[in-house]
Design brief:
about 100 residues, alpha+beta, Arc Repressor Mutant, subunit A, about 15% strand, globular
Length: about 100
Amino acid sequence: MSEGLRESDTQRVAELLKVLAHPIRLKIINSLSQHRELNATSVQKQIAISQSLASHHLIKMSEKGILTKVRGGKEIYYSLADPILTDWLTFLLKIQR
């Protein structure tokens, strides 16, 4: 049986949830779950936001370990750090019904 979260763990999880609690970031996760990886321009086009706004959110999510990034020439390609994140979001939708 699990001993539960330590205080430091609860703080880290709360910070992660704050980053995820943004509609644009959830749209980015959804887009990345449908495509293996995308660059900022592709994300921007997929969810109809400015490229600077897409870059801002992609960087923030990368800093928190939600996304991984790989440089390919002049572009940076982003992907989900762990695909289980989409399962977790699906679970949250189910319990909201």
